Each structure stands twice: as C-alpha cells, then as structure tokens.
Amino acid sequence: MNNLYRLLFLVFFYFLISSIAASAQTTTLRFAKLITGQGDVITDAVVVVEGDKISKVASGEKNIPANTTLIDLRPMVAIPGLIDVHTHITYYWDKTSGLSPWNSRMDPPTTVFLAQENALKTLETGVTTIRDLGSSGGMDMAMRDLINRGAMKGPRMFVAGNGLHISRARVTPGVSTVDPGRADGVDEVIKVVRQELGAGVDWIKIYGSTGSAQNVTGFQTFTQDEMKAAVDIARQAGKRVAIHSYGPDGCKAAVLAGAASVEHATDVEPETFAEMVKRGTFYVPTVDHNRYYADHREEYGYNAIIVKALNNYTERNFKSLQLAVKMKVKIAMGSDAVFTGFGENTRELRWFVKAGMTPAQALQTATVNAAELLDRKNELGAIAPGFFADIVAVDGDPLSDINVVIDNVRWVMKGGKPVVDKR
Ligand SMILES: [Zn+2]
Rounded to the nearest whole angstrom, what is the distance from the C-alpha of residue 135 to the centroid of ligand 1? Predict the structure, then answer.
C-alpha cells in the first residue's frame, strides 16, 4: 500500500512540475500601443509569445496569462520586425587593411565571422529579416544557416548566392578566368541558375544593367530572353528572381521577363510602371544607397566628380520613386547596404515619405509588402497569432513621424528571443 501512495504522489508531482514548466514557456510583452502591420492599432497591448511564434495579441491586463515571463515595454510602441529586401551583408570592410572598402576583401571564412558586425548593426535598426542580394563563395548561405541554428546572432536571411552577370560586367583581363555567376546566352543562364539553385539559394539575382558603386551608368546587359530563361528555371524550383537595373531598358525587360522585383531603376517609363501594377511586380528603389555613398565619400575615396554623378543619380531615382508612388506600384524597402551602410538600413523610409507616402504606407513597405515579396506573408511582417515573434519597440508614434522608426528603436525581439535592448 505504501508503494501505491508513493506512486500516486510521484505521478501528481510529475504533472504539477510539467504544468508549471509548460506555462512558464510563454513570454508576455506589454506595450502602450501596438501597430499590427495589418491595419490595426491596439492600445494597452499584450502579446503572448510561445517558442518562436506569437500565440495571442490582445488589449488589457486581464489577457496576461498566469506564470508567464512578463516584459513590460510601456510606454513604448510595438511595430512588426522590419524587413530589408536588398542587402549585401557579406561585404565587410577590414579597416585594419588600410585599403578602401571595395579593395579590402578577405577569405570567405574570416569574412563570414567578421560580418556578424553587419548582422548585429542590422538588428539594431529593427530589421529582423533580410533578403541578401549577392555574395560569393557561399558566404551568404553559411551566415543564413549559422543564424538559423543559433550559432550566430543576426537577422533571418533569404539569400541569392552569386549574382548572374554577363562577361562585360566584371572580368578584369589577365586577372582570373574564374568568375562565378557569369553567364552569356540563354543556355549558360539556364546552367548557372541551376547551379545556384543546387547550391541552396533562396532567390536568383541578376545584374540586368551596368551600374554599381561609383559607376552610375544603366546600360542593359542581359536580353529579355536571357532574363526570362532565368525566371522560368527558378520558377520550376519554386523560387523567384530579383533583377538589378540602374536604367529604364533593363527595368522594362526585367518586368516583361517576369521578375518578382526590379531593383534601383531610374528614368522608368510610365508604361513600365503600368505593366508592374498589372503584374504585381515590386519596385525596390534603393534611393538612399547613393546618398550613403555620397555621405561616405572619404571612406570610398570618391572625388567631387563622382559625388556629383551619385547625387544626380539619386535625384533621378527619387523622381522614379515619386512616379511609382503616384501610380500605386507595389514598393518594398531595400537599403542596398554594403560595408558601413549596415545600421542605416531603414533610412530609405524617409525618401518614401518625402515621395508622398504616409508614415503608415512607408512602414508597410518594410513589413507586409516585403513579406509578400518574400512569399512569407502568413508568417512575417505583422504582429498576429501564428506569425514569427519578430517585434520592435520604439519611442514615439511611428504613424505620425517615420523618423521614430529610423532613430528610436529601443528593443528588438526576433523569433521569440530578445536580441537588442537599449532601454
Ligand atoms: Zn545591390
């Protein structure tokens, strides 16, 4: 009989302990106000987080579960974790080299390790997800996987591996014949896209025109047929294509070829924007990236002539943005951050408001719109049950002043874990 009592006691004790453990697994966040990203604003907000997902969003103290870990973030305001759809996170500047950023490249393992600095600076801006559009040596995939397994701290990454480019774009005569991503003609494009997909990329990136860094030309490179071949092969694998074009011709070809997004383009014709509206193609203007180069002219060694060209590009880029806003083209926020640009990921939002968006619309470009472009609109870009617990606390009201999002990020949660705390 004694043994039976002992057994009953042990069973009771086991259930008591496991029920306490189960309820203690939740974390509850409190905010003065919460912007869901799906059009609602909740005051006195309570968010319950279980594991890496949100299980409940409600208002008022009565919704705080028992035995939860409470993080009281009042009087701050919650916004969804932001998404930057155009970065180059493995572009790391080794300042000890004494060389300019573009010349200070290191071997891939060292770069991956040091690029954690870019990843942390990105989280500090409230960006919890990035689409990284162009790397080399598998560095982007390594970072993505290290972050996913918890071995590295950084944003959730969707990566594109080697960007496809034509011979003209990058070959330096006499230097090296190895040039990953190079493709000329439809057959080579098909082959290289398959190789990138086989390597494990999430996206295909194509350099559809000239132009990068101090070079602000925008001559189309790949033909529309080559671009379409890439889109068709990627689609077979359930993947999408992002096409870089500084000029209007590459942009038009990219849209007609079926790209999911066109990056950077200036001088875009109204007909092309109309086609983008019809097809649902995203425009990722990256207006701020040439502002960044001009501001950081000394680091890059850019002279007055280069800065003038950069500023001229920014002006034309902004005009295309204004037209896109007016024509209601789908827009997503991309910084095109490289090197010291990490930490400035969200400054693009200022251009969006300047071009005519409300702060709420600007916020959408880095939340719901970006999530739609990533084909993840049921788990990213909003604070709602079932979504990843990617949540940012800011000081002030982001709906009356977009600078609150850019300058006042105080606390960040990614996948249910606090990753930034500047309270
Ligand atoms: Zn880029």
Answer: 10
